[in-house]
């Protein structure tokens, strides 16, 4: 199921600003899509998570998912959402490097702006959305109407 990137100016500006900070040995995966049609169709949280995971990972069907089980096993508590995003964007030791990819204050500012795109988001991490790297840091976020991805993919 295709999910076109939402053309929300605040999101597109944020994405461009984050991407001005090059990764030492990696890249960013940043996206924001609508999931309102899935909710309207009666899908539950785990089914929606499966659908957006398939979209971003390139997996053809739910049966081929790299992660297994309910999304709850990958959920990050609300109080750790900001910290998880900051750690991924900042880089450094979190991704096996001796220097940071961006200053912590910038990582904090970008992370808060990304979170502000959502109303009461649930966050998921460690799902193995791609096998193109050693380190995958960041979150897949979902609220009532949107799903967003802010991941740092990095090799050491």
Automatic annotation (TrEMBL):
Recorded superkingdom: Bacteria
Name of the protein this chain belongs to: Uncharacterized protein
């Amino acid at each position: 199921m295709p999910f076109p990137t939402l053309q929300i100016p605040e999101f597109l500006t944020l994405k461009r600003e984050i991407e001005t900070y090059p990764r030492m040995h990696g890249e960013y995966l940043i996206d924001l899509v609508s999931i309102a049609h899935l909710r309207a169709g009666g899908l539950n949280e785990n089914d929606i998570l499966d659908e957006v995971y398939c979209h971003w990972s390139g997996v053809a069907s739910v049966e081929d998912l790299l992660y297994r089980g309910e999304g709850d096993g990958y959920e990050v508590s609300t109080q750790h959402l900001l910290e998880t995003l900051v750690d991924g964007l900042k880089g450094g030791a979190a991704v096996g490097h001796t220097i940071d990819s961006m200053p912590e204050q910038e990582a904090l500012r970008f992370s808060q702006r990304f979170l502000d795109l959502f109303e009461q988001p649930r966050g998921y991490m460690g799902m193995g959305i791609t096998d193109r790297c050693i380190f995958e840091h960041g979150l897949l976020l979902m609220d009532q109407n949107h799903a967003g991805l802010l991941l740092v993919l990095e090799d050491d």
